[in-house]
Structures are given as C-alpha cells and as structure tokens.
Specification:
about 25% helix; about 25% strand; alpha+beta; about 250 residues; ten-stranded antiparallel sheet
C-alpha cells in the first residue's frame, strides 16, 4: 500500500545552499568541474544525483538545464528548449519504466515563491519508493478552456484547478513531436513572468502520466490561499475566458 507523506531530512536540509535567498552565494551548478555522480550529459544539459537528498526513501536527481546561470526556460532558443524537454522526458520515463519505484515525479521550481533553493535553471526527477503520485491525480485536473491546439497537442487553462486560480495545462499528443508541447510550456512560463495581469516572479512546472497520456501543468506561484491551506478548497477565477483571449493576443496573433 502506498504511503501518503514524504519524510524530509532536516539535517541534510540545513546544509543545502540557497542562491535564491543569498545572492552572494556561489552557484554549485556553475562549478561544473566539481560536479559529481553525473548520470547523463547532452551538451550543456546535465543529469546527476542530488548532492543533498533531503527526501527519505527516494532516489533524487537534478537536471541542470543550461550552463547559463541567468538563463530561463521562458526565453530558451527553440532548439535548446526542445532538446531539454526531450532529455527530461526520456530520463523520467526511463526511471518510471524501470519498475524500481512506486512512481517518479518530474518538476521544476522557478523563483522565490516556488519552493526552490538554487537560482541556476534546473529541474528534478525523483523516484518515490512508497508513494504513487497518480493516486492524487485525476483527469479533471487537466480539463479547461482551450487556448491553442496544434497537431493534437492542446494548451488549456484549468476550469477545475488543483490548488486554485490559474493553472495552465499542456496535453502531449505525440512523444516523437515535442515542438508544440515544448513551445506551449514556454509560452505559459513567459506569460506568467512577463504578461500576467498580476506581478508574478515564480512558477512551478509539473509533468504527469495519467491513463497513458503525458501532461504538463504550469502554475504561477503566489502566497497560497488560506482556503486551500486550511480546507483543501480550490478557487476558480471568473476571468478565465479573458485570460484565454489575452494569451492568444500576445502569442498566437
């Protein structure tokens, strides 16, 4: 039977560097010659074991997205963007298909409200030995108003968000054609950081497998609403249709 909680090792957590909070701290991901336990490399993209595995009973890896400490997914050139998403999906699915874990999570933190600690662009792929994340995911989490669609890959705004307010979803049609999937993810991130109707400097990107399909969810991060913290009650904004049109105007002509 799957467990419901992860245990966080505070002893390891206290040792972790935090270049988001401490701007004077040197970046461990920029010192590439000092990186250890490297698992795979594709140009400037590196997958390695997490040096600070704070989550007990898991296998934690870090995916360094680029050698540019000031880079950001929302502005990557298309060729690097697609290479990055393909690299990440490949290793995530390989870990999932290894059957060594109850489930494998793949996500990205960006910004001071995202829950991350290192500013250098990176993602994480974590094998969970006792938790199946799919137990807490349902198809309605990815239903929404369609912003754009290309070659069967669909970009939407949630009408039943998991946490509340604005959540962007991308459903992948063909894993051999990641162009639209990658560009829609990038569009959501760029919109959140640059054209969102409220100032926002943080987001999370999550990947899911559900019923044979692959989804991405991009979530702008603010202070989490107390209704969700206290009661797990998500709220749905009344301007979803307006935001759909605003994104179309900014990015799809």
């Amino acid at each position: 039977m799957s467990q419901t909680h992860l245990f966080f090792n505070t002893g390891i957590g206290r040792k972790k560097p935090n270049s988001i909070r401490d701007k004077e701290q040197s970046c461990p991901f920029c010192e590439r010659e000092k990186l250890t336990d490297i698992l795979a490399v594709d140009g400037s993209i590196i997958l390695l074991k997490n040096k600070y595995p704070v989550l007990e009973n898991t296998y934690q890896t870090v995916l360094i997205e680029t050698d540019d400490c000031h880079g950001e997914l929302s502005i990557y050139p298309e060729d690097h963007l697609i290479k990055l998403i393909r690299f990440g999906l490949t290793h995530w699915l390989e870990m999932s298909e290894s059957k060594q874990y109850q489930s494998v999570i793949f996500f990205k933190n960006h910004g001071p409200l995202s829950g991350g600690s290192i500013a250098h662009p990176h993602m994480q792929i974590i094998g969970l030995h006792e938790i199946n994340y799919e137990d807490k995911v349902q198809a309605s989490d990815f239903e929404g108003v369609t912003i754009h669609e290309k070659n069967g890959t669909v970009f939407t705004i949630s009408t039943a968000p998991r946490v509340g307010f604005y959540e962007f979803n991308v459903k992948l049609e063909d894993i051999d054609d990641l162009t639209a999937f990658s560009k829609y993810i990038q569009t959501a991130a760029h919109y959140i950081l640059n054209n969102f109707p409220f100032y926002c400097n943080s987001y999370n990107l999550f990947f899911y497998q559900l019923n044979g399909d692959i989804y991405a969810k991009i979530v702008p991060r603010f202070i989490t609403t107390p209704l969700f913290i206290g009661y797990f009650i998500p709220q749905v904004p009344n301007n979803i249709e307006w935001m759909k049109e605003d994104i179309r105007e900014h990015y799809f002509g």
